[in-house]
Design the sequence.
């Protein structure tokens, strides 16, 4: 189960050819004990609720790999 904390980074890798990656900072954890969903502020400034799938990677605030799905 994926777990994250406020301040962690999330990387969403493109699922299809030509779709870009998205990166953002987790600004709110809405699940119990660090579990999804996460409110993420993406690098382009928009915010959205993310339910991470296998195409997501969470890095702690220091850039180290964290939870896995």
Sequence:
């Amino acid at each position: 189960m994926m777990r994250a904390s406020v301040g962690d980074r999330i990387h969403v890798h493109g699922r299809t050819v030509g779709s870009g990656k998205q990166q953002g900072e987790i600004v709110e954890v809405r699940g119990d004990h660090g579990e999804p969903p996460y409110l993420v502020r993406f690098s382009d400034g928009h915010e959205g609720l993310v339910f991470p799938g296998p195409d997501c990677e969470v890095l702690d605030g220091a850039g180290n790999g964290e939870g896995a799905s």
Notes: The mean pLDDT is 86. The radius of gyration is 11 Å. The chain is about 0% helix and 35% strand. The chain has one domain: 9-59.
